[in-house]
Structures are given as C-alpha cells and as structure tokens.
Amino acid sequence: MQLVPRLNVNSQTCINLISCIYSHFQHRTHIIQTTISISSSTFSSRIFMLPLYTYLGVLFLLIFFLHNSSCSAANDTLAAGRVLAVGEKLVSGNGKFALGFFKPALPAGFSASSSGIIAFRYTDLSHATKHFSEKLGSGGFGSVFKGVLSDSTTIAVKRLDNLHQGEKQFRAEVSSLGLIQHINLVKLIGFCYEGDKRLLVYEHMINGSLDAHLFHNNGTVLDWSTRHQIAIGVARGLSYLHESCRECIIHCDIKPENILLDASFAPKIADFGMAAFVGRDFSRVLTTFRGTKGYLAPEWLSGVAITPKVDVYSFGMVLMEIISGRRNLSEAHTSNNYHFDYFPVQAISKLHEGNVQNLLDPELHGDFNLEEAERVCKVACWCIQENEFDRPTMGEVVRILEGLQEVDKPPMPRLLAAITERSHVISK
C-alpha cells in the first residue's frame, strides 16, 4: 500500500515536505496525511538559504522515512482495529484502501466512537462471533452472525461470501454507511479487509427485520401506532439519503427484509450493497438492473436511467404490506386467477370506495386510527404510480405521513387498471 504520492522535485516541494514532517513528529501518533500541502513563509525564507543539493538530500531521506512509517501505520491500523475518521475516502476505485488519516489504536474489538469506524482483525471478529456460530440470517451476498465485543457491545457481522459480488457490496456499503449517520439508518461500526476476507460490522438490532413481524408467526403483532411510526421512520431515512447527503444515495432494494428494528421498534434501513450514487449536478443515473421482485419500479424494466423515485415506488409497496400484514405478491399469484390476490389492486379500489378499514391487517382487530390509515393508504398508492413524475418525493412523503401536508386520492395506475379489468373478465 503506497500512501506517499509521487512528487516533482523542486525547492517548494522540499519546503512542503520538511514542514509536513515537522508536523508529523509533533503528532506522530495522531495523524498521518497522504497529501502534503503545508507551507510557511517564515520557514521558507530560511530554507532558501541552503543549496539545492541539500534539499535533494533531505528530500530523499524524508521520502524514505515517510514511506516506511506510513505503510507501517497503515498495516497496523488495518490489523489492530483502529478508528478511521468518518468523512475520509475509505475505498479507492480499484477496491484497495486509500486511507486518508488514522487515529491512535484502540484495544482490539473496542466499540466505535461517534466520529469513526473501526478496521477489525479477522481473528477478533472470529472470536467475537464464536467462530461464526450464531447465524442471524443470510442473503445473496453472504450471512450475518451475532457477536459480542470485548466491551460487551453486541454486534452483527456480515460475512460476504462471493469474492467478486462481495467486493462490490463491500465497497458500496463502506462508501455509503461509512460516511453518513442518521437515526433511521443502521450504524456501520467497522469492517475487516484482510486478504480475500470481506466483513462488515453493524450495530445489532434486537428485534430483527420488519418481515419477521409482518409475515411470520413469531408471537408478536405490531400495533397500529408502531406500524405508523415505522412508516414515518423509514420515510425519514430515505428522505435523508435522497435529499440531505453530499451525493444523492439511491438504496435500490427497499423491502421489509432490509428494514431492521431496534429495542423500541424504531426502524433503521440496512443493506446498502446495491446502492447507487447520483451527483447533485445530475438528476438520474444509468446503472445495472437490481432489486427484488415485487418492489421494482416499472422504469427498471425499461432500462432507462433511474432516479430516487425507484426507492419511492419500493417504499409504497412496503407501505402496502405494513397496512395489510401480508405480502403484496402471494403464492396464489402464480395461478390463472392470480390477479384477484394482488393487494395493490385491492388497496386502490377500496380507497376509492371509502372502505380502507377492510384493507388493514385482521390481527389489529379494528384497533387503529382511521385518519392515519387513510393517509398511509393514499401515500402508498401515490408512491406506486406508474409514471415516476406522479410519485411524491420522500420529503413530501414524510410531511404527508406526519399530517403536515394534505394529499388527494390518487388515480388508478394504468397497469393496475388493466389487471383489474382482466380480473373482472376472468371472474365472469
């Protein structure tokens, strides 16, 4: 790993290098910089009194010293669990780490501070997870295991299996969660980048994922107030990603499995392995097809450049499932009369009939706020409009769900209208 850039040798370069190393000696255990841009006019006037060959000799020694000490510090940091400042560039274009600066080492396995993330050793994570014995879940990119650090902090460790796909997900997650913090985004505590091993370390969410509480008989039923707060929390998290980060971050895979719940059932968006980034000077990005069936916006299928509205569509589909407590696409969806069991069709139809209460999860036993339920149903139906320009932004969604902005009844999307019409024909 080369942390010292190539330099054009001249007098000013020598001055900058000497100034930098002066600072380095003062703060040796605190910071190592990859870019050298320190200068001092007073120091410069004295340095120029020396012959140029003196500069060159000093330059050779300084480069040798910086190269060895920087590489040693980098290796120690990646191996010994040091905190990396949030905001620095963690992953370069070729997948190798380009660490901007480090902070002093912490004890192995120590929990991250609010200002940084930790580079863990693989052996420490193996020990924390009892050799990856307690699996919390698994997906297309790898498995997640429960672990406990030496300070008793409970963690979730995602071990990425497929090296090629895992590398891409690793870079996407560190590039997004490593640089941002929000109460409704899962916290990235650290990572492991050792040989072919790629692991991500998150805060542990004790109540698991939303799908477990909506679709599985695990003995818990989310009441209406909890569901409403989950909907608002996820909307706030997405609004932050779309509108408040330096670059717009499109999650690209919003679904109940990627919404985690803490001890108070507050939601946190997780799994940024498919995330796409859009510069603020652009409105859309052309990217490869990604996401999960049942939550994909129509524009994914057309191959056009996407906008944050693909997340809005997915969020609308999740809202439908929060309302009903069932999958939008059920097993019956594969039969000849599957259109009768496609919940979004029912949702919009019942909304226009003024019969929203029949859409709600029977497990609620009628215990819900009808005004909030109607508002959530309206938002969900607007979010899944076929034309992306008809969908609200996530900022608007937050205001509507909080009751700060009114919303009209949405039209029936053409695709759903066609499904409804065909369903009536089949039923005759």
Automatic annotation (TrEMBL):
User: Transmembrane segments in this chain: where?
Assistant: 47-66
Q: Where is the Protein kinase domain?
A: 130-404
Q: What SMART domains does the annotation carry?
A: S_TKc
List the GO cellular component terms: membrane
State one molecular function term (GO).
ATP binding
* Annotated ATP binding sites: 158
Assigned keywords, A-Z: ATP-binding, Kinase, Membrane, Nucleotide-binding, Serine/threonine-protein kinase, Signal, Transferase, Transmembrane, Transmembrane helix
Q: How does it sit in the membrane?
A: Single-pass membrane protein
Q: Which PROSITE patterns does the UniProt record give?
A: PROTEIN_KINASE_ATP (PS00107), PROTEIN_KINASE_DOM (PS50011), PROTEIN_KINASE_ST (PS00108)
Q: What is this protein called?
A: Protein kinase domain-containing protein
Identify the species of origin. Leersia perrieri
